[in-house]
């Protein structure tokens, strides 16, 4: 039997109160919902936790027909549908995890007009048969969640999203809504263009999460720093520690446990039952610290996470924002803490170099990394930098490490010139290039076997940098890398000059460096070997 799902509620507010039990809409929710209920298109940019789901679910409940939701993450789809069913909303999904019989049952329910919401994975919609099926029913609204996946410049590009552009032509008269929690100005423009949403109304919420305090420390001994950070927190708080590799996750969790911290590991390589056990302990118990790869946290609704710590540098500001955004979703004070160092920069650049993709792709990844480094090395307010990245202007926040403790800067032009000319001379005179350690040894006038063997004592810059400690120099190198005044190159991450280096060498450009990050690396002094 064919049918059209009737309207379940007369007004959006009625739906909000009956289904979700909330008194009022938040922020732009009401305006975005009104736009779509009236039949218009909408683009909604709202940070994680802002309440995007309500924005498309409510119109589906108020309008006649079934709401079609395009969602890229199957796990999230399941969670959403379960939550909706528990609230008495008729929701279902179509994806690759289902049997043919389950799919057929969902299709029948849709055509019979029994569904308020139908979730589909984007690749399903590339399939003409799926589109034909959907066209036989009646849609109330089309929602495209995680709309930033359409951006080829973004960090999360999914080719299937490009095919969503013509949904407006396939289903004329059905209002469309694109939603995302990560959109720079460029991504926002791409969403508008590629999803053919030129006539849409735009709802851009602030991305600020004022209750999150941002802190970024120079990495000396990440695990030791992490332990003292966690110990500085009140007893019993729950937190997440993000690391890049599975090995790092396991070793860090073990290290924390050895220090008496109730830490659990979580990554895709662990058996499903272990992951499930760890996740449920994290959700239910006090004082659990989850050490995880970034796969953990998506779709996990734990509002009272008090800190998110990164011991490896995230690949992009978008990633950093998303991951730190899992802290303090209850609005209470929370901390985003990170330790990063030169090793992170070198490792990430190498991963990009050796990774897949063409030159343009690598360049984009490089740009993402540079933006991340700029946030780490900024002498200004972290939040200002972060929000600025998302196209939002703001005043210094007073709730980040740089605001709370103004970083002192100093004129690092001469130090930069010493390092740059050492690099240039080695290349020009001997066709050699080296990593930071050896270059610093030269500048510090160290007498290592390698320096003697290579007769680097004869270089004119040998010993010229003895006024700074080894640790200071490491920080200078890191900051110059961040400012793109030197570049890490090749398989071994040796240091080379960049286009911008020339102006510094010629004395045409002043280099301002952060003073407070100097000397934080556990220095070994001048190495004698
Ligand atoms: P997003 O998808 O934007 O990350 P969600 O839709 O998951 O956010 O919503 C985040 C949380 O806020 C959820 O627990 C949701 O139920 C809650 N929420 C959404 N809208 C409201 C509202 N108007 N009032 C109170 N809580 C809300
Ligand atoms: Zn600040």
Automatic annotation (TrEMBL):
Family membership noted in the UniProt record: Belongs to the helicase family. RecQ subfamily.
Descriptive protein name: DNA helicase RecQ
GO cellular component: bacterial nucleoid; cytoplasm; replisome
Taxon lineage: Bacteria, Bacillati, Actinomycetota, Actinomycetes, Micrococcales
Superkingdom as given in the UniProt entry: Bacteria
Catalytic activity reported: Couples ATP hydrolysis with the unwinding of duplex DNA by translocating in the 3'-5' direction
GO biological process per UniProt: DNA recombination; DNA repair; DNA replication; SOS response
Residues of the full protein shown: 51 to 579 of 660
Enzyme class: isomerase
Domain annotation Helicase ATP-binding: ranges: 33-201
Domain Helicase C-terminal: 222-373
One MF term in the entry's GO annotations: DNA binding
Cofactor(s) the record lists: Zn(2+); Mg(2+)
Keywords: ATP-binding, DNA damage, DNA recombination, DNA repair, DNA-binding, Helicase, Hydrolase, Isomerase, Metal-binding, Nucleotide-binding, Zinc
Organism: Microbacterium mitrae
Entry EC no(s): 5.6.2.4
Signal peptide interval: none
């Amino acid at each position: 039997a064919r049918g059209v799902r009737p309207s379940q509620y007369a007004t959006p507010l009625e739906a909000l109160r009956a289904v979700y039990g909330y008194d009022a809409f938040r922020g732009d929710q009401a305006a975005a919902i009104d736009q779509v209920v009236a039949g218009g298109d909408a683009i909604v940019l709202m940070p994680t936790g802002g309440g995007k789901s309500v924005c498309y679910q409510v119109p589906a409940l108020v309008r006649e027909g079934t709401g079609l939701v395009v969602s890229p993450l199957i796990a999230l789809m399941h969670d959403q549908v379960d939550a909706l069913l528990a609230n008495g909303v008729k929701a279902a999904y179509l994806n690759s995890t289902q049997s043919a019989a389950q799919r057929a049952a969902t299709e029948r329910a849709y055509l019979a007009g029994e569904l308020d919401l139908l979730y589909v994975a984007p690749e399903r919609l590339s399939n003409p048969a799926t589109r034909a099926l959907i066209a036989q029913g009646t849609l109330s609204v089309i929602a495209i969640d995680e709309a930033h996946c359409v951006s080829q410049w973004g960090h999360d590009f999914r080719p299937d999203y490009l095919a969503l552009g013509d949904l407006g032509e396939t289903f004329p008269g059905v209002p469309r809504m694109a939603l995302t929690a990560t959109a720079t100005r460029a991504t926002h423009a791409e969403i508008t263009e590629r999803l053919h949403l030129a006539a849409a109304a735009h709802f851009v919420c602030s991305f600020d999460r004022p209750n999150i305090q941002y802190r970024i420390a120079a990495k000396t001994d990440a695990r030791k720093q992490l332990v003292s950070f966690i110990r500085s927190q009140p007893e019993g708080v729950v937190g997440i520690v993000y690391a890049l590799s599975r090995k790092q996750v396991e070793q860090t969790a073990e290290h924390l446990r050895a220090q008496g911290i109730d830490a659990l590991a979580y990554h895709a390589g662990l058996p499903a039952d272990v992951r499930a056990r760890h996740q449920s302990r994290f959700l239910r118990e006090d004082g659990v610290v989850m050490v995880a790869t970034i796969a953990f946290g998506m779709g996990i609704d734990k509002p009272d996470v008090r800190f998110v710590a990164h011991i490896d540098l995230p690949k992009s500001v978008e990633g950093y924002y998303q991951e730190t955004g899992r802290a303090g979703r209850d609005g209470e004070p929370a901390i985003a803490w990170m330790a990063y160092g030169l090793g992170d920069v070198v490792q990430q650049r190498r991963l990009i170099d050796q990774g897949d993709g063409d030159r343009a792709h690598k360049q984009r990844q490089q740009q993402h990394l540079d933006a991340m480094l700029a946030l780490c090395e900024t002498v200004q307010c972290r939040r200002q930098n972060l929000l600025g990245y998302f196209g939002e202007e703001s005043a210094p926040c007073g709730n980040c490490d740089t605001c709370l403790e103004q970083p002192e800067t100093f004129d690092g032009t001469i130090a930069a010139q010493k390092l740059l000319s050492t690099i240039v001379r080695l290349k020009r005179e001997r066709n050699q290039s080296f990593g930071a350690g050896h270059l610093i040894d030269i500048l510090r006038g160290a007498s290592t076997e390698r320096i003697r063997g290579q007769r680097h004592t004869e270089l004119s810059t040998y010993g010229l940098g003895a006024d700074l400690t080894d640790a200071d120099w490491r920080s200078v190198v890191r900051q110059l890398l961040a400012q793109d005044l030197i570049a890490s190159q090749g398989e071994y991450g040796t240091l080379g000059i960049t286009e911008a280096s020339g102006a510094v060498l010629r004395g045409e450009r002043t280099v301002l460096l952060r003073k407070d990050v100097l000397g934080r690396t556990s220095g070994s002094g001048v190495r004698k070997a």
